[in-house]
Amino acid sequence: MKLLLNILFYMPLLMAELCSAQSSIKTYARVHRDTIKINDKQTTNILFAHPITVFDRGSADILAQRSPMAADLLQIKASGSGFENTNLSVLCADGSLHVFNVSYEHNPTKLIWEVGLVQPDAVNDRATQARQRYHARALKVSQLLVPSMSVGRERQQIGLRLNGIYISEDQMYFHVKLTNKSYIPFDISRLALYSSDGKRARRGAHQEVEIPPLYILGDVRRLERRSAHSVVLVTPKLSLGKGKELRLQLWEDQGGRHQQLVIKNKHLIKAVPLN
Questions:
Q1: Which of 5, 25, 138, 156 lies 20 to 30 Å from 57, alpha-carbon distance?
Q2: What are the Cα distances from residue 102, in Å, to 40, 50, 76?
Q3: pTM of this prediction?
Protein backbone atom coordinates (compact mmCIF):
# COMPACT_ATOMS: atom_id res chain seq x y z
CA MET A 1 0.00 0.00 0.00
CA LYS A 2 2.83 2.38 0.87
CA LEU A 3 4.46 1.70 -2.49
CA LEU A 4 1.20 2.47 -4.31
CA LEU A 5 0.69 5.69 -2.34
CA ASN A 6 4.24 6.78 -3.14
CA ILE A 7 3.69 6.14 -6.85
CA LEU A 8 0.44 8.14 -6.81
CA PHE A 9 2.06 10.97 -4.82
CA TYR A 10 5.12 11.37 -6.99
CA MET A 11 3.54 10.66 -10.37
CA PRO A 12 2.25 14.28 -10.83
CA LEU A 13 5.70 15.67 -10.08
CA LEU A 14 7.35 13.31 -12.51
CA MET A 15 4.71 13.92 -15.15
CA ALA A 16 5.19 17.69 -14.86
CA GLU A 17 8.91 17.26 -15.45
CA LEU A 18 8.24 15.04 -18.42
CA CYS A 19 5.69 17.39 -20.01
CA SER A 20 8.02 20.36 -19.79
CA ALA A 21 10.93 18.56 -21.44
CA GLN A 22 9.50 15.70 -23.50
CA SER A 23 5.85 16.38 -24.27
CA SER A 24 5.91 14.12 -27.32
CA ILE A 25 7.04 10.97 -25.44
CA LYS A 26 4.51 8.63 -23.88
CA THR A 27 5.21 7.64 -20.28
CA TYR A 28 4.87 4.07 -19.09
CA ALA A 29 5.52 2.71 -15.61
CA ARG A 30 7.48 -0.35 -14.58
CA VAL A 31 7.42 -1.51 -10.96
CA HIS A 32 10.44 -3.74 -10.30
CA ARG A 33 9.91 -6.76 -8.05
CA ASP A 34 13.47 -7.07 -6.81
CA THR A 35 14.38 -4.93 -3.81
CA ILE A 36 17.55 -2.88 -4.03
CA LYS A 37 19.64 -3.38 -0.88
CA ILE A 38 21.96 -0.55 0.15
CA ASN A 39 24.12 0.51 3.10
CA ASP A 40 25.99 3.62 4.22
CA LYS A 41 29.46 2.27 3.45
CA GLN A 42 29.17 1.30 -0.24
CA THR A 43 27.76 2.94 -3.36
CA THR A 44 25.18 1.04 -5.40
CA ASN A 45 25.11 1.83 -9.14
CA ILE A 46 21.94 1.58 -11.27
CA LEU A 47 22.57 1.67 -15.01
CA PHE A 48 19.60 2.45 -17.27
CA ALA A 49 19.13 1.92 -21.00
CA HIS A 50 18.37 5.65 -21.51
CA PRO A 51 19.49 8.94 -19.91
CA ILE A 52 17.86 9.81 -16.59
CA THR A 53 15.46 12.76 -16.77
CA VAL A 54 14.51 13.02 -13.09
CA PHE A 55 14.51 10.84 -9.97
CA ASP A 56 12.82 10.97 -6.57
CA ARG A 57 13.77 9.33 -3.28
CA GLY A 58 11.05 7.85 -1.14
CA SER A 59 12.77 9.23 1.97
CA ALA A 60 15.81 11.20 3.03
CA ASP A 61 17.40 7.94 4.14
CA ILE A 62 18.56 7.48 0.54
CA LEU A 63 21.36 9.59 -0.89
CA ALA A 64 21.21 9.66 -4.71
CA GLN A 65 22.92 11.45 -7.57
CA ARG A 66 23.17 11.17 -11.31
CA SER A 67 26.72 10.38 -12.27
CA PRO A 68 28.53 13.45 -13.65
CA MET A 69 30.26 11.14 -16.15
CA ALA A 70 27.23 9.21 -17.44
CA ALA A 71 23.67 10.51 -17.89
CA ASP A 72 22.23 6.98 -17.65
CA LEU A 73 23.87 6.09 -14.32
CA LEU A 74 22.30 6.70 -10.90
CA GLN A 75 24.41 6.21 -7.77
CA ILE A 76 22.75 5.64 -4.39
CA LYS A 77 23.68 4.79 -0.80
CA ALA A 78 22.13 5.02 2.67
CA SER A 79 22.49 8.25 4.65
CA GLY A 80 22.92 6.31 7.87
CA SER A 81 22.87 2.89 9.45
CA GLY A 82 19.47 1.28 9.15
CA PHE A 83 16.16 2.72 7.92
CA GLU A 84 12.60 1.62 7.21
CA ASN A 85 11.87 0.22 3.77
CA THR A 86 11.27 2.94 1.21
CA ASN A 87 11.26 3.35 -2.57
CA LEU A 88 12.98 5.09 -5.46
CA SER A 89 11.35 6.46 -8.63
CA VAL A 90 13.37 7.19 -11.79
CA LEU A 91 12.09 8.70 -15.03
CA CYS A 92 14.20 8.14 -18.17
CA ALA A 93 14.35 10.05 -21.44
CA ASP A 94 12.43 7.36 -23.33
CA GLY A 95 9.40 7.90 -21.07
CA SER A 96 9.94 4.87 -18.84
CA LEU A 97 9.16 5.35 -15.15
CA HIS A 98 11.00 2.83 -12.97
CA VAL A 99 9.90 2.26 -9.36
CA PHE A 100 12.05 0.25 -6.96
CA ASN A 101 11.67 -0.91 -3.37
CA VAL A 102 14.77 -0.01 -1.35
CA SER A 103 15.84 -1.49 1.98
CA TYR A 104 18.90 -1.39 4.22
CA GLU A 105 21.29 -4.33 4.37
CA HIS A 106 24.55 -4.36 6.28
CA ASN A 107 26.47 -6.15 3.52
CA PRO A 108 24.61 -6.09 0.17
CA THR A 109 25.83 -8.63 -2.36
CA LYS A 110 24.71 -6.74 -5.48
CA LEU A 111 26.17 -3.29 -6.10
CA ILE A 112 25.50 -2.96 -9.84
CA TRP A 113 21.98 -3.07 -11.32
CA GLU A 114 21.31 -2.99 -15.06
CA VAL A 115 17.80 -1.88 -15.98
CA GLY A 116 16.31 -2.37 -19.44
CA LEU A 117 19.63 -3.35 -20.99
CA VAL A 118 20.21 -6.31 -23.32
CA GLN A 119 22.70 -8.51 -21.56
CA PRO A 120 25.87 -9.41 -23.49
CA ASP A 121 25.06 -13.09 -22.98
CA ALA A 122 21.71 -12.59 -24.71
CA VAL A 123 23.44 -10.89 -27.63
CA ASN A 124 25.98 -13.69 -27.84
CA ASP A 125 23.22 -16.30 -27.66
CA ARG A 126 21.36 -14.73 -30.57
CA ALA A 127 24.56 -14.46 -32.61
CA THR A 128 25.38 -18.10 -31.87
CA GLN A 129 21.89 -19.22 -32.86
CA ALA A 130 22.15 -17.25 -36.12
CA ARG A 131 25.52 -18.85 -36.93
CA GLN A 132 24.06 -22.28 -36.25
CA ARG A 133 21.18 -21.58 -38.67
CA TYR A 134 23.58 -20.30 -41.33
CA HIS A 135 25.84 -23.31 -40.88
CA ALA A 136 23.00 -25.83 -41.17
CA ARG A 137 21.62 -24.23 -44.33
CA ALA A 138 25.04 -23.69 -45.90
CA LEU A 139 25.88 -27.34 -45.25
CA LYS A 140 22.67 -28.37 -47.00
CA VAL A 141 23.60 -26.19 -49.99
CA SER A 142 27.12 -27.65 -50.16
CA GLN A 143 25.68 -31.16 -50.40
CA LEU A 144 23.45 -30.42 -53.39
CA LEU A 145 24.65 -32.49 -56.34
CA VAL A 146 22.75 -30.77 -59.15
CA PRO A 147 23.72 -27.10 -59.72
CA SER A 148 20.84 -24.65 -60.05
CA MET A 149 22.99 -22.52 -62.38
CA SER A 150 26.46 -22.53 -63.83
CA VAL A 151 28.46 -19.34 -64.18
CA GLY A 152 32.17 -20.00 -64.34
CA ARG A 153 35.61 -19.10 -65.51
CA GLU A 154 38.91 -20.97 -65.73
CA ARG A 155 42.30 -19.44 -66.35
CA GLN A 156 45.80 -20.75 -65.69
CA GLN A 157 44.20 -24.01 -64.53
CA ILE A 158 42.34 -22.25 -61.70
CA GLY A 159 38.57 -22.51 -61.87
CA LEU A 160 35.93 -20.35 -60.20
CA ARG A 161 32.31 -21.37 -60.68
CA LEU A 162 28.98 -20.32 -59.21
CA ASN A 163 26.82 -23.45 -58.94
CA GLY A 164 23.76 -21.80 -57.47
CA ILE A 165 22.16 -19.05 -55.44
CA TYR A 166 19.71 -20.00 -52.71
CA ILE A 167 17.58 -17.98 -50.33
CA SER A 168 16.16 -18.63 -46.86
CA GLU A 169 14.44 -15.91 -44.82
CA ASP A 170 16.48 -12.76 -45.52
CA GLN A 171 19.77 -14.46 -46.37
CA MET A 172 21.26 -15.59 -49.67
CA TYR A 173 23.59 -18.58 -50.03
CA PHE A 174 26.12 -18.50 -52.89
CA HIS A 175 27.40 -21.99 -53.74
CA VAL A 176 30.89 -21.59 -55.19
CA LYS A 177 33.21 -24.28 -56.52
CA LEU A 178 36.98 -23.74 -56.55
CA THR A 179 39.22 -25.90 -58.74
CA ASN A 180 42.99 -26.16 -59.03
CA LYS A 181 44.09 -28.37 -61.93
CA SER A 182 47.73 -27.46 -61.56
CA TYR A 183 50.44 -28.95 -59.37
CA ILE A 184 51.01 -25.60 -57.67
CA PRO A 185 48.98 -24.97 -54.50
CA PHE A 186 46.83 -21.82 -54.57
CA ASP A 187 46.95 -19.75 -51.37
CA ILE A 188 43.83 -17.62 -51.17
CA SER A 189 44.20 -14.02 -50.09
CA ARG A 190 40.60 -13.04 -50.84
CA LEU A 191 37.32 -14.60 -51.87
CA ALA A 192 34.69 -11.90 -51.72
CA LEU A 193 31.65 -10.34 -53.34
CA TYR A 194 31.68 -6.75 -54.54
CA SER A 195 28.95 -4.51 -55.90
CA SER A 196 30.04 -2.30 -58.77
CA ASP A 197 28.84 -0.18 -61.66
CA GLY A 198 29.05 -2.48 -64.68
CA LYS A 199 29.54 0.17 -67.35
CA ARG A 200 32.20 2.04 -65.42
CA ALA A 201 33.91 -1.25 -64.61
CA ARG A 202 34.29 -2.11 -68.28
CA ARG A 203 35.76 1.31 -69.00
CA GLY A 204 38.48 0.80 -66.44
CA ALA A 205 38.19 3.14 -63.45
CA HIS A 206 35.39 2.13 -61.10
CA GLN A 207 34.48 1.93 -57.46
CA GLU A 208 33.64 -1.38 -55.80
CA VAL A 209 31.84 -1.86 -52.50
CA GLU A 210 32.52 -5.10 -50.65
CA ILE A 211 29.56 -7.07 -49.31
CA PRO A 212 30.80 -8.65 -46.06
CA PRO A 213 29.50 -12.22 -45.64
CA LEU A 214 27.43 -13.15 -42.62
CA TYR A 215 28.97 -16.62 -42.63
CA ILE A 216 31.36 -18.71 -44.74
CA LEU A 217 31.33 -22.50 -44.97
CA GLY A 218 34.44 -24.11 -46.45
CA ASP A 219 38.18 -23.52 -46.70
CA VAL A 220 38.98 -20.01 -47.93
CA ARG A 221 42.66 -20.21 -47.07
CA ARG A 222 44.19 -22.69 -49.52
CA LEU A 223 43.35 -24.66 -52.62
CA GLU A 224 45.64 -27.65 -52.76
CA ARG A 225 47.20 -28.87 -56.00
CA ARG A 226 45.02 -31.01 -58.26
CA SER A 227 42.00 -30.49 -56.01
CA ALA A 228 38.55 -28.96 -55.84
CA HIS A 229 36.20 -28.00 -53.04
CA SER A 230 33.04 -25.99 -52.41
CA VAL A 231 32.54 -22.79 -50.46
CA VAL A 232 29.19 -21.30 -49.44
CA LEU A 233 29.01 -17.55 -48.84
CA VAL A 234 26.06 -16.34 -46.77
CA THR A 235 25.01 -12.71 -47.31
CA PRO A 236 21.98 -10.53 -46.64
CA LYS A 237 19.40 -10.72 -49.45
CA LEU A 238 20.60 -8.80 -52.50
CA SER A 239 19.14 -7.20 -55.60
CA LEU A 240 20.78 -4.92 -58.12
CA GLY A 241 19.72 -1.64 -59.68
CA LYS A 242 20.08 -0.76 -63.34
CA GLY A 243 23.66 -0.91 -64.53
CA LYS A 244 24.86 -2.62 -61.35
CA GLU A 245 26.48 -6.02 -61.02
CA LEU A 246 28.17 -8.25 -58.48
CA ARG A 247 31.73 -9.39 -58.88
CA LEU A 248 32.92 -12.57 -57.20
CA GLN A 249 36.68 -12.26 -56.85
CA LEU A 250 39.24 -14.94 -56.04
CA TRP A 251 42.70 -13.51 -55.39
CA GLU A 252 45.92 -15.47 -55.01
CA ASP A 253 48.22 -14.51 -52.16
CA GLN A 254 51.55 -13.37 -53.62
CA GLY A 255 50.57 -14.71 -57.02
CA GLY A 256 48.88 -13.67 -60.23
CA ARG A 257 46.30 -16.37 -60.93
CA HIS A 258 43.38 -14.16 -59.96
CA GLN A 259 39.84 -15.00 -61.04
CA GLN A 260 36.66 -12.97 -61.27
CA LEU A 261 33.02 -13.75 -62.08
CA VAL A 262 30.30 -11.27 -62.99
CA ILE A 263 26.92 -11.94 -61.37
CA LYS A 264 23.96 -9.98 -62.71
CA ASN A 265 20.50 -9.32 -61.39
CA LYS A 266 19.13 -11.99 -63.74
CA HIS A 267 21.13 -14.52 -61.72
CA LEU A 268 19.99 -13.16 -58.35
CA ILE A 269 16.29 -13.33 -59.20
CA LYS A 270 16.72 -17.03 -59.98
CA ALA A 271 17.61 -17.74 -56.34
CA VAL A 272 16.12 -21.05 -55.25
CA PRO A 273 14.30 -21.19 -51.89
CA LEU A 274 15.70 -23.57 -49.30
CA ASN A 275 13.16 -25.87 -47.68
A1: 25
A2: 13, 21, 10
A3: 0.57
